[in-house]
Amino acid sequence: MKTITWVKMLASGGIMCIGGPALIYYVTPTEEELFLRYNPELQRRSLERRQEKQEDFDNFVGRLKEYSKSDKPIWTAWEKDVERRRAIHNQELVDAKRAEDAEAEARRQEIKGSIR
């Protein structure tokens, strides 16, 4: 009696442990099958953006590799890089604003000179 119970338990455990993932693998569609289910407009947009997405991913992975070279945790290096990029971006905005202000002042001076 105990042997039969153990055999049933092992058989049902084997079916669940092997059959479950096998069933999931069988019913999950591949990327190509999903792509073919898209409507033509989505397929066209996906193909157009594929290169851009790949470049973004490559840049992301490259930055992660760069961050991993540091002895600090990746998230710390990531935060420092974000701060550095933000500072660069802010400086660019300030420089652009100064250039616009200088151009506006030059126009004002030109208008003042032409009125006199």
From TrEMBL:
<keyword id="KW-0472">Membrane</keyword>
<dbReference type="InterPro" id="IPR012420">
    <property type="entry name" value="Cbp4"/>
</dbReference>
<comment type="function">
    <text>Essential for the assembly of ubiquinol-cytochrome c reductase. It has a direct effect on the correct occurrence of the Rieske protein, core 4, core 5 and apocytochrome b.</text>
</comment>
<keyword id="KW-1133">Transmembrane helix</keyword>
<comment type="similarity">
    <text>Belongs to the CBP4 family.</text>
</comment>
<dbReference type="Pfam" id="PF07960">
    <property type="entry name" value="CBP4"/>
</dbReference>
<feature type="transmembrane region" description="Helical">
    <location>
        <begin position="6"/>
        <end position="27"/>
    </location>
</feature>
<dbReference type="GO" id="GO:0034551">
    <property type="term" value="P:mitochondrial respiratory chain complex III assembly"/>
</dbReference>
<keyword id="KW-0812">Transmembrane</keyword>
<dbReference type="GO" id="GO:0005743">
    <property type="term" value="C:mitochondrial inner membrane"/>
</dbReference>
<protein>
    <recommendedName>
        <fullName>Cytochrome b mRNA-processing protein 4</fullName>
    </recommendedName>
</protein>
<keyword id="KW-0496">Mitochondrion</keyword>
<keyword id="KW-0143">Chaperone</keyword>
<keyword id="KW-0999">Mitochondrion inner membrane</keyword>
